[in-house]
Amino acid sequence: MGLDENQLCGDLMCNWVLEHPHASICTSEAKLMEKTRYNKYKFDHDRIGISGGATYAHETVAFYLANPSRDFRVDPI
């Protein structure tokens, strides 16, 4: 079963990331996004969501559409 279809693995990964915030890929992603934008903008790693697979990406977009806020989605280049 693919990772995007395996909700148990997704839940375990979310828990691991919350328990290990300094090891999170979101921290590195935030730094990379700042660097590619010449450090003109700051990105909060706590507000970055990274998805893998079509199903999980669809669920993430549906969540953001159902709960609008100041968050936005940036597609990888």
Automatic annotation (TrEMBL):
What broad taxonomic lineage does this protein's source fall under?
Eukaryota, Viridiplantae, Streptophyta, Embryophyta, Tracheophyta
Q: What is this protein called?
A: Uncharacterized protein
Please give the organism. Answer: Arabis alpina
